[in-house]
TrEMBL record:
Protein encoded by which gene: tgtA
Species of origin: Halovenus carboxidivorans
One Gene Ontology cellular component: cytoplasm
Listed cofactors: Zn(2+)
EC annotation from Swiss-Prot or TrEMBL: 2.4.2.48
UniProt binding sites for substrate: D128, A196
Top-rank taxon: Archaea
Pfam families given in the database record: TGT
Annotated active site: D93 (nucleophile)
Span of domain tRNA-guanine(15) transglycosylase-like: 13-340
Protein name: tRNA-guanine(15) transglycosylase
Length: 486
């Protein structure tokens, strides 16, 4: 494992980092978006990706270049950076996509890695087997073994300063994904893409996507930069970042533009159905939907692609700032309200609260309770664990109102709050006056945790109309009183 990736700050498993790319002589700020550039058809020229949108890195397909009568020799003679007119870092794919589409390709791992080095790629990729979702376990295991063999073969190829990726495969079999990640991390390769994810994203299976990424992350060290292959829609960048993904590549900006599709952080709109543009980018401020519909095909594709890029890079900046401000999960929650499948993904993410809290900071600026899902966040789980270690007095009043001199506050979703922790994050949370049932249920779990750790303490819970079925899950020896009716 190289020491090229440095994590600067965490929020949940999301992280701000810096990835050094020696051959390019640059360091990439992460999370980062890699626009996919088709070397034959450049909807938006790479120079504009850099100057207009701030792209620090892009990705193109070395297999396409290898087989191109038109571009192979220019790429070998002048190098990728001159060919594409891009001064940032360039990553190259190996032909695995073509392998998944057509069943075979006519190069070996050694040949394609050597070609990537010769054309000046900064980050190269071996030929992995992109196993699709839901295949039989035997197929997934066999193809993962083949991928691992090629990863280990890649270690033996002289790639100079070019970084080399170690793709993680395994379909939707989580133990295979975890093993694949562990084996990939055990090599001396540099970057770890989680592959064959596009089918899950195309089918809006964000819950399965979270399971797969969580499994891969369990097999990787925290110093491993993670690339989520094909994660091109801005609606899911925050979710992917919260899982601990650092790099995303997107062909969606161009592919969607050619289909007349208009990206937003809440989903996809069709140009034909828009009366107004709900965006403030330069394209949307200077054109109406009707003007784009009347434009020539090439111009329409370019303008839509520029809008799609503006939205995508804007969301990456928003994700970075959310990590910096400690409110990434609030951003994920907001994005989850844009589509039911995204909400499934967010809820699945919170199944892994214990995994997230390994890196989630103990202190942040603020905790905003914004939905029932907030009750399952890592901060709540951490407080409940802390309650299991606290010593309570012989008699303890837990109250939603003033607990009195010898009592503790009772705060949903956290539960018991001793005076010494009242002004400590996250117990200073901003909450709405009206809470959902999950908040009360989480608070009761906190009471139960404290009671189990202090079996000799006589506990009284004073509430202000909490759901009866939630209160019924308190231990039988806990007294229950209604605030004002004691």
């Amino acid at each position: 494992m190289s020491e090229l990736f440095e994590v600067e700050q965490y929020d949940a498993a999301g992280r701000l980092g810096r990835l050094e790319v020696p051959r390019a002589g640059t360091t990439i700020q992460t999370p980062a978006l890699l626009p996919v550039v088709n070397p034959h058809v450049q909807t938006v020229p790479p120079a504009e990706l850099e100057s207009q949108f701030g792209a620090e890195i892009l990705i193109t397909n070395s297999y396409v270049l290898h087989g191109s009568d038109e571009l192979r020799e220019p790429a070998l003679e002048g190098g990728l950076h001159d060919l594409l007119d891009f001064s940032g870092a360039i990553m190259t794919d190996s032909g695995s996509f073509q392998l998944s589409e057509y069943g075979e390709i006519d190069v070996t791992t050694e040949e394609i890695l050597e070609f990537q080095r010769e054309i000046g790629s900064d980050i190269g990729t071996p030929i992995d087997i992109p196993t699709p979702p839901d295949v039989p376990r035997e197929q997934a295991a066999e193809e993962q073994r083949t991928t691992q063999e090629r990863i280990e073969l890649a270690e033996t190829v002289d790639t100079g300063e070019m970084l080399v990726t170690a793709p993680i495969q395994g379909s939707t079999h989580l133990d295979i994904r975890q093993r694949a990640a562990r084996e990939a991390y055990g090599t001396d390769l540099d970057l770890f893409p989680i592959g064959a994810m596009v089918p899950l994203m195309n089918e809006y299976r964000f819950d399965d996507l979270v399971h797969v990424v969580a499994a891969a992350k369990r097999g990787l060290g925290e110093d491993a930069p993670v690339h989520l292959f094909g994660a091109g829609h801005p609606m899911m960048f925050a979710l992917a970042a919260a899982m601990g993904c650092d790099l995303f590549d997107s062909a969606a900006y161009a592919l969607y533009a050619r289909d007349g599709r208009y990206l937003t952080v809440r989903g996809t709109e069709h140009l034909d159905e828009l009366e107004h543009f709900p965006c403030e980018c330069s394209v949307c401020l200077s054109h109406t939907p009707e003007e784009l519909r009347q434009a020539g095909e090439t111009e329409r594709h370019r303008l839509l692609a520029e809008h799609n890029l503006a939205v995508s890079f804007g969301e990456i900046r928003r994700v970075r700032q959310a990590i910096r401000g400690g409110n990434l999960l609030e951003l994920v929650d907001a994005r989850a309200r844009g589509h039911p499948a995204m909400l499934d993904g967010y809820r699945t993410l919170l199944h892994y609260a214990d995994q997230l809290r390994r890196t989630d900071p103990v202190a942040k600026d603020a905790f905003f309770y914004v939905s029932g899902e907030s009750a399952r966040r890592p901060e709540v789980r951490r407080h409940h664990e802390r309650l299991g270690r606290l010593d309570a007095p012989d008699r303890l009043r837990l109250s939603v109102g003033s607990p009195g001199e010898d009592g503790w506050r009772l705060v949903a979703p956290f539960g018991p709050v001793p005076p010494a922790l009242s002004d400590v994050y996250p117990l200073t949370a901003a909450r709405p006056d009206s809470l959902e049932r999950p908040a009360y249920a989480a608070a009761v779990r906190g009471v139960n945790r404290l009671a189990a750790a202090n079996p000799d303490t006589a506990i009284t819970v004073v509430h202000d109309g909490w759901p009866e079925d939630v209160l019924a899950s308190l231990p039988g020896d806990v007294s229950i009183r209604l605030l004002g009716g004691e």
